[in-house]
Prior knowledge:
Helices cover 61% and strands 8% of the residues. The chain is of the alpha/beta class. Strand 10 and strand 11 (704-710) form a beta hairpin. Helix 3 packs antiparallel against helix 4 (112-148) and helix 3 crosses helix 5. It starts with a helix and ends in a 16-residue tail after the last helix. The model is unreliable at 222-233, 806-822 and 1007-1020 (pLDDT under 50).
Amino acid sequence: xxxxxxxxxxWLLLIFILSGFAGLIYQSIWTQYLGLFLGHxxxxxxxxxxxxxxxMALGAWLVSRRSALLQRPLLAYAVIxxxxxxxxxxxxGLFQGATGWAYTHLMPGMxxxxxxxxRWALATALVLPQCVLLGATFPLMSAxxxxxxxxxxxxxxxxxxxxxxxxxxxxxxxxxxxxxxxVGLPGTVLSAGLLNIAVAxxxxxxxxxxxAPVVVARPVPLTSVDAPRDAAxxxxxxxxxxxxxATGASSFVYEITWVRMLSLALGTTLHSFELMLAAFILGIAxxxxxxRRRADRMVSxxxxxxWVQVWMGLAALASMFVYAQAFDWVGWLMRVxxxxxxxxxxxxxxxxxxxxxxxFPAAFFAGMTLPLLTLALLRAGQGERAIGQTYAFNTxxxxxxxxxxxxxxxxxxxxxxxxxxxxxxxxxxxxxxxQRVQGAATGWLRSPVLRAGAVGVLGVVAAVxxxxxxxxxxxxxxxxxxxxxxxxxxxxxFSRDGQTxxxxxxxxxxxxxxxxxxxxxxxxxxxxxTSMKQAPTSDESTMILLAALPLAxxxxxQRVGVIGFGSGLSTHxxxxxxxxxxxDTVEIEPAMVEGARLFGKRVERAFNDPRSHVVIDDxxxxxxxxxxxxxxxxxxxxxxxxxxxxxxxxDEFYQFVPQQLNEGGVFVQWLQMYEITxxxxxxxxxxxxxxxxxxxxxxxxxxxxxxxATPKGKLPAMNDSLFQQPALREELAxxxxxxxxxLDDTLSMDxxxxxxxxxxxxxxxxxxxxxxxKLKAPVARFQRAFTPDFQEVMATPWPIxxxxxxxxxxxxxxxxxxxxxxxxxxxxxxxxxxEVLQDRVVTPVDIAAADWLRAQALRGLAGRxxxxxxxxxxxxxxxxxxxxxxxxxxxxxxxxxxxxxxWMDCTPKDPTVAxxxxxxxxxxNDDHHAVLTEGRRxxxxxxxxxxxxxxxxGYYLFGAMQHAARGLGDTAxxxxxxxxxxxxxxxxxxxxxxxxxxxxxxxxxxxxxxKVESLPSGRE
Length: 1020
């Protein structure tokens, strides 16, 4: 049996690696599943951890009471792994069925507390049974393996702890980087289930031998003559179990605090979180590995455990010094790594190294505590039940640590002192253990308690005195821009480590005066000028328009819901309209609301208006629990790459929102255009447009898109009644919106254009269960991706959207109304170019020098009758100037400039120049037939290929013809143009989102998008 036992050991360790791999997948994936149902509030996150850890503690405790009665614990282990696997395979179907049934049949009409209780009860029923079974695996495997090698108890315990933790660390990384992108949540949890079944099959042949004796409950005598009396026998069992619980609590305080700390340096993404988790678990694994060959030679495991506790506390204190350098390291990385997909991989590797430097040393010691304490109880004669008891107490302590860190230590003491408290607890535990095993003959100066205490005090004092977490560094968002510290002119006004995020408010100098910003985990969510007399920021334009655009559609919003408090300006703007009834603003982080108070009068209605109600909760959970529906819901969460936020851009969220709207209700969604690819924007739009019958896209500024949609019917036309509200009129005037025409100017795409945008950039849909956005948005952020299409559409030489000519109070170029911080107003520039061409001014006014030179060059050629001298160059000048003037001038000015052409003294005879002039004139008069005729003449002419190959000329020529075909409804002509000339265009022209969109719209006409076959897509 001894030979068989020795041969079984390595196999059991390898099998337990697979078990740990699957177990960590469950923890990670269940957290995401339950987050979809319970929300991502701090209470919901706490419940998920309580379910997971509490279930495991219960399972371990139950095994501790029955382990000695089992003849073949490995067989019981195999059965439990098999049951876990079966439950894992069926989890996705069970979860979606149960939660869907609850949303449809149980929760409607239920008030907040009863709905919350129902959701928590259902979540408990879904995962608690598997958690209990998972908790039973370690004690059963330990008991079975220990019976095979009863003389190597320490080696068995430490070896299993190492293998299980190693598998868990690998599971965290494989699940996030391989399984989730490939098969989503359902496939990942299915993979874990299949792995559990494979473990059961592998263990079964090793579990058939039931002849190994039970590890009986009797003290193990010490053989060393130099050792003190058996301290383990004299130490009360309860004390060891309480130490196991306390060290479990401190370890989880470490983990949660480190994750929050490193999120400020590495970013709050799924990838960074899993890297931190893997680094922590890997440290635990190697602690077990180091102990494996040494544990059985230790005379007093409790003495070693005491020193381990002290060194763990000191390592946690030392991590503060390491962490203080992390921002410099990340800043250096952001400066030297190429912002590409391969660069992101390198950034992740470096992030893992930084996380390991912070976490690994203390985690290494944490990996020794449980095996040492369990071994002490085994030697004290507790038998196999000691394994389950120690594991259960350690897991229960972890629950306490989670709750204390999230709800007590971080909010009250901050990150530094939360970590300090946990370190002091570990050092104190070490001193208690060293005191219990200290021999009576030990001299005072040789006392290990004194030495350990002195080292501990020095470590605590050093951490308190020498380490400073500078808020200007912590909130620098170094992971985005590479700046290690906020500007020297910045003043930190508020910094709070909240339950779900670290929130800061700071003031910094700008060219127009002081600017105040509120940031979450370093990422600025809103920035505003401190005075109404200053120029507005781009964020102000976004927040004000988020409220103003829907207010221009309807007059009777009795109940409004806002997702995300931010600075409070959107809510403040809404309440500037006296017609608005109740406004419920749902914010997940209490510190966000507290910090926003520092914006003072700029957001005072959000706090003081009796119609304003601020709710601290997860948005989807709150709306699902509310029995009342809304007339308007505005969703302005943080960026999709931020952990937990991508769920507010998913298919399931857009299926959910219409159920919360009254008849004729309106939904408004913010989506950034920076740090995101067109494909990811397409994935969001695809889910939204499927659930809403009509939508429009407005551009608040270069980087912020506002989507306005309704689930039934058509959105009404905007009206100017909101300008009759004095408070609202004042906010709008601040961003340059003085009339309905100004508001219309922010329109980027209508419903048809939005629906055409989606197939141009094929992408996987962003679903809660296949989280494309959560996985790919961090990469786009790192690459500094940008989606320019919505801005390009608003400045094309040919109108993609039919816009009525607005009546304006101010003349163009003289204070014309245009939203501050919005897209560039090209009307003054177009007007100035027309003046230059018509020889009314001779100096550049409102235009760049290059534009002025082009206009002067064309006028000079025309004045000297030399337009025919270089036909292609003349055509390029004509197309460039027509692009910069025709779309932005009123009809009479367009006609005067390009049809009457008083600036020309001679009639060109060259066919290329003549056709170019005729085409530009036809475009100015919206004569679509003439545009197509002259365009074909140009393309079939001698210089046609050269014009198409030129990026700017080809862009104008091809686009003008597509616009004409669309205006005539001639889809056949549009497709013929695409088939014949698309590939001849310059690469820059083919990459233009606006040109592809126009070609798509022209070629489809009334045809459904799914039936279109030959169209230019977003990929070459």
